[in-house]
Design goal:
Elements: H1 3-18, H2 23-37, E1 40-45, H3 47-50, E2 52-58, E3 61-67, E4 69-70, E5 77-83, E6 86-97, E7 103-105, E8 108-110, E9 129-133, E10 136-139, E11 144-153, H4 162-173, H5 176-183, E12 187-191, H6 197-207, E13 213-217, E14 222-232, E15 237-238, E16 250-251, H7 254-262, H8 275-278, E17 283-287, H9 298-307, E18 311-313, H10 320-328, E19 330-336, E20 352-356, H11 365-374, E21 377-381, H12 399-409
Parallel strand pairs: 1-8, 4-21, 11-12, 11-14, 12-13, 17-18, 17-19, 19-20, 20-21
Antiparallel strand pairs: 1-10, 2-6, 3-5, 6-7, 6-14, 7-8, 9-10, 15-16
Helix pairs in contact: 1-2, 4-6, 4-7
């Protein structure tokens, strides 16, 4: 056993003694230490040091981050942020991970978010990340690999999460046909193993109508080793996770909205657009939520909206076409904040929305993005929550305040 391994084992044993009465934690620490012993240890490098810029997708821009109205508190607002240049970069001998954002190239790791000012506050959720120490990254050694000649990746930390997929990964998908003309070579599109059937339908509908492409899904703990990798960073910045909220957690460039409008919302094979049916009675939707970060007095609030004729829906249980049809007919949408509200990009402009949030999350820039670029009339309402419980705490909104907001908004 090497000296390094002995030191790691010694540190592990000290931790075991301290938490001997917590066997589950002991097991987790033991696994972590074993992974560290065989970890890939690399310096974090800048993408410009090793990659070749093939094409600039977006120059550096000044992007406005918009905040929604908060009932009884704020009328909205905005902050201007710098959004960096976005390039198509070609790497040689690059390794792509299914649920991590870093790329391994030669003697270093390209990890774009590490170089952003926001990195000082985020909690990285890269699945294969073991530790970051100074300018070094420790990565769990993959158990399986596949070889790719020319690759283009849609993988990443939140590539399988609906709200992230729409603004961080979907615009990269819509760049593929243009890139095919630039690259003029057959490519393998590297995908994560999608668990969301709606994401899967959007991606495969597009790719199956494109020529000169092969599709490869990475399995869990599998990496793709590419002779050549054409890579575009995430098209929007959203923090992986955070212990507190900052306006800089959500920076979604205007070109993302344009991409969604010109592609997703213009795709007749996906978008429900039966004019006769859309003239039917407009719908009033209550988007349900289960689990944490929920409204505590939901029973009385839901009873109030049921009496007002609202239909209760859980968008993730619907097919893509069912969801699109539903939101295109929506006139009013209410409910506790969730990724279900991102589906309002399918709705008609001026759709009225009343969304419930705990105070930590009431200035939600994603809602501001949908409001500004898709014309959705958002109002947030918040109540009472425990500030010591963090950004995911549940909360209580007095029914009288809900009723007052509905009267004010004409709901």
């Amino acid at each position: 056993m090497s000296i390094k391994s002995i030191k790691l084992l010694h540190k592990f044993l000290k931790k075991v003694i301290i938490i001997l009465l917590r066997p589950h934690q002991v097991i987790q620490i033991f696994k972590h230490q074993l992974y560290l012993m065989s970890a890939i240890k690399l310096p974090i490098i800048d993408s410009s040091n090793l990659g070749k810029i093939v094409k600039t997708i977006k120059e550096e821009t000044i992007e406005k981050v918009f905040f929604p109205k908060v009932f009884g508190l704020a009328l909205g607002g905005q902050i201007d942020f710098r959004s960096p240049k976005l390039d198509l970069i070609k790497y040689k001998n690059a390794t792509v991970f299914q649920s991590s954002d870093f790329i391994l190239v030669q003697d270093g790791a390209v990890w774009e978010k590490f170089h952003k000012p926001q990195f000082t506050k985020i909690v990285p959720l890269d699945k294969d990340l073991l530790k970051v120490e100074n300018n070094l990254i420790y990565i769990k050694k993959p158990s399986q690999s596949v070889n790719v000649k020319i690759g283009y990746s849609l993988c990443g930390v939140h590539s399988k999460v609906w709200s992230h997929f729409l603004v961080q990964y979907l615009p990269k998908l819509y760049l593929i046909r243009d890139l095919r003309n630039t690259i003029d070579q057959n490519m393998t599109i590297i995908l994560p193993k999608y668990t969301d059937p709606q994401i899967r339908e959007i991606v495969y509908t597009y790719l199956n109508n494109s020529e000169g492409l092969e599709i490869m899904e990475l399995q869990d703990n599998e990496v793709a080793i590419c002779d050549s990798l054409f890579h575009i960073g995430n098209t929007a910045y959203i923090s992986d996770h955070a212990s507190y909220i900052s306006p800089a957690d959500f920076i979604i460039p205007k070109f993302v909205a344009q991409s969604l409008k010109n592609n997703l919302l213009s795709d007749s094979s996906l978008i429900y657009n039966d004019v006769a049916d859309l003239k039917d009675k407009k719908l009033k939707l209550y988007i349900g939520r289960n689990g944490y970060r929920n409204v505590l007095n939901s029973t009385e609030i839901e009873a109030f909206f049921k009496a007002k004729g609202f239909d209760f829906v859980f968008p993730h249980t619907l097919t893509l076409k069912e969801k699109i049809k539903l939101f295109r007919r929506a006139e009013i949408v209410v409910g506790p904040g969730s990724s279900g509200f991102t589906n309002l990009l399918f709705s008609k402009p001026n759709t009225k929305v009343l969304v419930f949030f705990n105070f930590s999350r009431c200035f939600e820039p994603y809602l501001g993005f949908l409001s500004e670029y898709f014309g959705i009339d958002f109002t947030v309402i918040t109540g009472f929550d425990d500030p010591s419980a963090g950004i995911h705490n549940s909360y209580r909104i007095p029914l009288a305040k809900i009723m007052s907001a509905c009267d004010h908004l004409g709901i």
